[in-house]
Amino acid sequence: MAQQQDDSFDYVIAGGGTAGCVLANRLSADPSVRVLLLEAGRSDAHPFIHVPAGFAKLTAGPYQWGFVSQPQKHCDGREIPLAQGKVIGGGGSINAQVFTRGNPSDYDRWASDYGCEGWSAKDVQKYFVRSEHNERLSGALHGAEGPLGVSDPVNPHPLSKAFVRAGQEFGLPYNGDFNGAEQFGVGLYQTTTRDSRRCSAAAGYLRTVRHRKNLVVRTAAMVKRVVIEHGRATGIETIERDALRRYTALREVVVAAGAFGSPKILQLSGIGDPEDLKQAGIEVVCGLPGVGKNLQDHCDLDIIYELTSYQSMDRYTRPLPATAAAAVQYAAFRRGPFASTVVEAGGFSYGNDQETTPDLQFHFLPAAGVEAGISAVRPGYGCTLNSYFLRPGSRGTVRVVNADPREAPLIDPNYLADDYDVEMAIEGVRQSRHIMEQPSMAPHIKAEHIAAGQSVRTKDDYVAFVRRHGRTAYHPVGTCAMGDSDQSVVSPSLTVNGLQRLRVVDSSVMPRIVSSNTQAPTVMIAEKASDMILEGAS
Question: Deepest of 156, 217, 297, 358, by most Cβ within 10 A of its Cβ?
Fold first, then answer.
């Protein structure tokens, strides 16, 4: 394979996902600094990416990596699909755009329990505010001038409104701001959309600065390794069109490839658990046992409901006159079904009433079977309610097979290994069923499709259901965790322990998963990291 030498850059960012796009914007703001952003996937030009309802088409196909878990010991030996964005904008370009930040106690525990000084709720709040351009909310808890567009659903589906009423009938208080003073309750989600278009980090942070002469963005660039010389990161090697290229970083290399990609890149570079590297045939450059460990994800449980009438959004997945009319409505007015993110409503509840903050989350979809691998009923006649336990105790791993960057890593989320995770997953399913039985939803429901026609009544039934149907919530974190323990990979400044001029900046640095969706916290991490990088360079 021929090697080509490219220009030098001050900063080389490995990964063009959510965090990478934020970093590219902030680090290139100084015109005297040259920044290179490398992305293994494609551009985000496809219209499905930008139309909010396009989410339903993106959990399978060429804009995600096609990762599949190792057989899950505690989930009936199933291999579970793990969709992760392989496109500029990363997960933010293919997800359901739900905008939640987590609970303030999550960040306070990062600081108090994991030695992450500077990451308490008070410390990180300004970065959430700085990132946000909220169409409705402002003040101390919300930003109105940031790059990331955040808005309310423009025309919520009647079923979504019915779900919100049903949640109140179940006993959840109405909540108009899940990122405000109180997380508990039910309501319509705000989403990362602006003017009825997806606002990923690529749209909000990167597109507006692509004209900068000091910023270079390369797609279809597979990272082979970080170049380490005398304990310092000096650049990145990539494979592009079957050619090996090397990019020099004069100041820092920043790895921002996500909870699966970042430990993979470190391991390919000889940074990781010596035993894992030995099995992969990779020479140890820096022994860090925590690389690829501590993998956490929310384990999602879906219940599909068959409706009494032809009204759900999955009817628009077929080439019908109604679909054409919806496309025209969206194109002309930015309204209608295509303006919906599909995941419109949800809430936070308590599975354990001894907890001080919510530990269950729900997502309601006025459609069924829109995500890859989720069973559907007749198109137009289904809706979905999913739930998950917010603070799982189960921990998994990510490990490279060999030194070939084109080889997928071995990913073992180890879902439901912790018995308490199973108990809370069951409680989420129970509460889901009770919500859907309330007066505002019951008239719409013809049948519950919970377990392929099998009844779920006893404790054993519930255990079997969660083990048979649990899946990813697309929230992997923790595999390059920050902190002060011997398993920590990065320091609270996100520098890789034992090496100079190398940082990791993405969801992999979370020492513990947040009690929510993970995109907004990842944006926050990159915003704070950009300040730390620039302060270190000054």
Answer: 297
Q: Domain limits at 266?
A: 1-46+85-153+201-297+477-538
105 falls within a domain: yes
pLDDT of residue 244: 95
Residue 413's contacts (CB-CB under 8 Å, 6 or more residues apart) are: 69, 72, 80, 82, 295, 297, 299, 394, 396, 472, 476
Distance set, CA 135 to CA 143, 147, 180, 187, 415 (Å): 9, 12, 15, 17, 37
Q: How far apart are CA 499 and CA 506, in angstroms?
A: 18
Q: Are 55 and 30 in contact (CB under 8 A)?
A: no
Q: According to the model, what pLDDT value does residue 218 have?
A: 98
Place of tokens 């035993």: 275
Q: Which residues contact 367 (CB under 8 A, 6 or more apart)?
A: 56, 312, 313, 314, 342, 382, 383, 384
> Is the confidence at residue 224, as pLDDT, over 80?
yes
Global model pTM greater than 0.85: yes
CATH number of the domain that residue 144 is part of: 3.50.50.60
Write out pLDDT tens, residues 15-58. 999 999 999 999 999 999 999 999 999 999 999 999 998 887 78
pLDDT of residue 2 exceeding 60, the answer is no
In a domain, 528, yes or no: yes
The span from the first CA to the last CA of the chain, in angstroms, equals 39
Active-site residue, from 133, 142, 469, 475: 475
CB burial string 247-273: b at 16+ within 10 A, e below: bbbebbbbbbbbbbbbbbbbbbbbbbb
Residues 465, 448 contacting (CB under 8 angstroms): no
* Cβ(79)–Cβ(68) below 8 Å: yes
244 occurs within a structural domain: yes
Q: Is 475 an annotated catalytic residue?
A: yes
Contact 364, 384 (CB under 8 A): yes
State which amino acid sits at residue 14: A
When pLDDT is cut at 50, 70 and 90, the band that residue 324 belongs to is confident
Over range 357-380, report the average pLDDT.
86
